[in-house]
Amino acid sequence: MFDDRTRYLNVYGNQLKVTYNHGTIFEEYVIDSQPFLFERWLSCTVFLTAIFLHLGLHHHHTHILALLCFVLAILALIKLHTKVKKESLLIVKTVGLQITTIFATGRKSAKFISWERIQGVVINETITMHQVLFYLAILLKYGHGTEILPIFQHTLPRLDCLKNIYKSIHQIVNKVQHD
Q1: d(CA 179, CA 170)
Q2: How far does the chain reach from its first CA to its final CA, in angstroms?
Q3: Strand arrangement, sheet containing 26-32
Q4: Dihedral sign for Cα atoms in the order 4, 165, 138, 13
Q5: For position 99, what pLDDT does the model report?
Q6: Burial readout 36-50 (b: 16 or more C-beta within 10 A, e: otherwise)
Q7: Which residue has the higher pLDDT, 62 or 26?
Q8: What is the reported pLDDT for 36?
Q9: What gap in Å lies between CA 109 and CA 107, rounded to an integer?
Q10: How far is the C-alpha of 31 from the C-alpha of 157, rounded, in Å?
Q11: For residue 152, what pLDDT is reported?
């Protein structure tokens, strides 16, 4: 059984809110990440503007100042558009899995996988130059081979959270495959 009262962190040390919902035919895991920090972007813009005003760029190089403000605004919009607010995994027994990603702008991305394609679930690791990252993945049948579909790849929960989710999903997948 999954305990959603436990406090979990992502790989960067940021707080995650993990919610577990269940019924007779479904289980759902929802991971909320920290909200977009618009104040940080605003304070950065104000700070850079103050530096440029102090240097006198507004007198001689207004086009550079305008360009920098425009670039900062575009970067903030890109960050807002790609910032993931919430990721969820919905398991409907005997039907399949649905992976949903909700972005800060409200945009949603969902992917459904039927049970016929699911081979299993694993905790996998990836090694970067500076760290080892663990992620939860669904093994899918793909022709004569296997495809790996990572889940919770934007919120990046740490291994302790992944283990708890894995135990529950693994139990369901094994039960469905043996029935």
Answers
A1: 14
A2: 21
A3: 8-9, 15-22, 26-32, 84-92, 96-103, 108-114
A4: positive
A5: 96
A6: beeeebeeebeeebe
A7: 26
A8: 65
A9: 7
A10: 8
A11: 94
Give the Cα separation of 116 and 177 in Å (integer). Answer: 9
> What is the three-state SS of the chain?
CCCCCCCEEECCCCEEEEEEEECCCEEEEEEECCCCCHHHHHHHHHHHHHHHHHHCHHHHCHHHHHHHHHHHHHHHHHHHHHCEEEEEEEEECCCEEEEEEEECCCCEEEEEEEHHHEEEEEEEEEECCCCEEEEEEEEEEECCEEEEEEECCCCCECHHHHHHHHHHHHHHHHHHHHC
- Nearest Cα neighbor of 56 from 45, 64, 71 is 64
Residue 106 confidence (pLDDT) above 90: no
Tell me if 52 sits within 8 A of 65, measured CB to CB: yes
Q: Please give the model's pTM, rounded to 2 decimal places.
A: 0.78
Long-range contacts (CB closer than 8 Å, 24 or more residues apart) made by 139-147: 140/113, 141/116, 141/117, 146/119
Report the percentage of the chain scoring pLDDT > 70. 92
Q: Distance (Å, rounded) from C-alpha 47 to C-alpha 148?
A: 44
Q: How many Cα atoms occupy the beta-carbon half-sphere of 113 within 13 Å? A: 24
Asked if residues 148 and 108 have their Cβ atoms less than 8 Å apart, the reply is no
The burial of 158, by beta-carbon neighbours within 10 Å (0-12 exposed, 13-18 middle, 19 or more buried), is given as middle
